[in-house]
Amino acid sequence: MRLKTILATGIAALALAAGIGAAQARISIWDGVYTDAQAERGHTLYMQSCSRCHGADLSGTFEIPPLVGRFMPYWSGSTLDALFDYVSTAMPLDHPGALGPSANADIVAFILKSNEIPPGSKELSADRAKTINFDSARQTAKRERKQQP
Amino acid sequence: MSDNGLSDTKPVLQNGLGRMDRRHLLKNSLALGGLVGMATTAARTTAAQTITTQGGRVPLMDRPFNLAPIRAHVDRIYDIKCCIRPFRTKGPRLDVEQIGDATVVHNYGHSGAGWSLSWGSADMQVQKAMSRAPKKIAVIGCGIIGITSAIMAQRAGAQVTIYTREVFHRTRSVRANGSWTPASHMALASEASANLGDIWERMTRMSWKNLRQFVGMAGNPVAFADHYYLSDTPFDAPTPAPPPSPVPIPQYYELGDRIGDITPTRQVLTQDLHPFPVKYAVRTTRMFFNFSEYGHVLMSSFYAAGGKLVMRDFHSPGELAHLPEKVIINCPGYAAHDWWKDTAMMPHRGQTEWLIPQPEVNYGLTYRNIEALSKSDGVMVIDTGIPGALPKGYGSSNEVPDRAEAERAVRVMEDLYSRFPANPV
């Protein structure tokens, strides 16, 4: 009897943990994952460290990829930490990894805002990025949430 | 007598150079593709061989005819291209890796030799891929390594889909020099595998054979041109000490004397034999690639065989396991540095400047560490760097074009051609 209780409790705990995990994974970039103030800081940092290659309007050049437009489908399907990691380790291209986690989070926030992804009330951080889906469109995010049990 | 041991007054044509000459020329021939032209003969150690002169006259077949001047002016620069060579300190990555249920055959890290080695490398890696007997194959990347791998896989009978974030003409490959430079910086001597030389030779010879199919096609996708190495001082004269390097100068893997039989020899031209306003000249013949025509031929061939191209970017190796194709040839070029976290990938910046095309110019030249080559889409000019110094752009991943560098390079050519006689040569 006692063994059954322990098993049942364990299964319930696992189910709860899985549920929490799923709930965390259901957060989308469209759910307000950065703040306006953060994006503003990111804009300043972007102009200092990124605009030389990607351009002030993020449109890139013939050689340098844009950070708007095709940027959305190219990054969709992953979680936001993939973008965060890339920015943190590969950028700026001529000084990879030169910026700290806070600065990179601000820059990612600015890139999200530049792609018309709405701000929210909580700032983006490296830890939060792991739980945020990079959905290509708001509709996709809603549809996927509806399909969740 | 000149320092090359040739008469200064008597028209003489001679094949081959002394050891010092070769070393000097090699250092002067570092270019975007790596060791351009001369690199193919880098390890040749055959003794000098004099071409027969008859009665003091140079055979008609060996005389340079009607060389049109390059109109080298900075206002004729119509494009500046910048790229990062996929230099891998351990040499090209050609192993096979399992990602989930997907077999990934790597094919990247060919440094400045991608255009040259592409077919041979594709041949080797497609054989590995086909050993799994797949009906469908995915190729990641659409640079010169990716597209040749895709075509080779089609020829082996597979249905091929290329996944790429850039179409061919926007890849880093098409921002390269585009010359036959198979020996360009294949690896660091301290990190290369013992059999790299054998693998390299096989790739080189297989590529050479495959490239034959494109020679003579309409538009000349793959062509040959004479190349002149010019100098105001003897090639074996001591050069000034290079500036101090902030990092150790890389010692590259020596490939040895392997492809001399398919490499044109060099000819020393005395001053009365060539039209250039310099005292010393050496001529060889080099293969090169016309990007527009060659790219068009390759992509047309790929589509004609039913190939599909999907625009897509990847951010972690694990994403490959979700592709419908379970055999994947991975050709990301320098992107492997960040995507695959391949720490052996060392950035090596290169820049070329392009003058308005001059179809009447059918040769290339190197003078004061600046190289020019007339191609169908423009006259390519490149600063090859100071001999003996840290290779230009080594360790740099800056891909922003440098206009000042471009103008400096073109002005060297402008100076050379401004010294020609007033009347046409």
List keywords for this structure.
heterodimer; A: 149 residues; mainly alpha; 8 helices; 2 strands; B: 425 residues; alpha/beta; 10-stranded mixed β-sheet; 6-stranded mixed β-sheet; 7 helices; globular; disordered N terminus
Give the neighbour order of strands across the main sheet of chain A. 1-2
Percent helix of chain A, as a range, is: 55-70%
Strand fraction band of chain A?
under 5%
Strand proportion of chain B, as a percent range, falls in 15-25%
Distance between the termini of chain A: 31 Å
Task: Evaluate the radius of gyration of chain A.
Answer: 19 Å
How big is the Rg of chain B? 22 Å
Number of strands of chain B: 18
Largest interface: A-B, 18 and 20 residues
Order of helices and strands of chain A: HEHHHHHHEH
For the residues shown, what is the average pLDDT of chain A? 83
- The global form of chain B is globular
The termini of chain B sit apart by 25 Å
Global outline of chain A: globular
Helix percentage of chain B: 10-25%
Describe the protein's architecture and organization:
The complex is a heterodimer of chains A (149) and B (425). Chain A has 149 residues and is an all-alpha fold. Helices cover 58% and strands 3% of the residues of chain A. Chain A is built from 8 helices and 2 strands; from the N terminus they run αβααααααβα. Chain A has a two-stranded parallel sheet. In chain A, helix 2 (36-49) crosses helix 6. In chain B, strand 17 and strand 18 form a beta hairpin. Chain B is an alpha/beta fold. The interface between A and B is medium-sized, with 18 and 20 residues.
